[in-house]
Amino acid sequence: MSDSDQNQQEVNTSQEQAADSGQQTLTFDGKTYAIQSLPPDAVNLLNDLIRSENELNEHRFRIRQLSAAQQGLTSALGQTIQAAGIEPVSEEGQFKPWIGDEQQDQQAA
Asked: What share of the chain is helix, strand, coil (3-state, %, to 5)?
């Protein structure tokens, strides 16, 4: 489990405990602290940690969206090329259209 996952789990646990006892707590490194007893800098850091975790989750979601879009675009490109009947470049890197090949073969014979 990554540090951010563990921190998020600890924050979630603290929120659950807060709902049960009416007091907000933070579990950090296996120790539970009352949010009210934390210095303002610690509360700000905790809020920043929660915001950064939320943003990270949003970015993960956006990456999944972009990946799905990329797969769809790749599929559409393949279908469009296939429907157009375009011949691929030969393995030597030279373009050999199928009509030109037939004409060259006929002229050589």
From this structure: 70, 5, 20
Per-residue model confidence as pLDDT tens digits over 52-89: 999 999 999 999 999 999 999 999 999 999 999 988 88
47/45 Cα distance (integer angstroms): 5
Q: Which two tokens stand for residue 11?
A: 């924050």
**Placement of tokens 């037939």 in the chain:** 102
- Is residue 65 exposed (0-12), middle (13-18) or buried (19+ Cβ within 10 Å)? exposed
Whether 18 and 24 have beta carbons less than 8 Å apart is answered as yes
Tell me, yes or no, if the pTM score tops 0.70: no
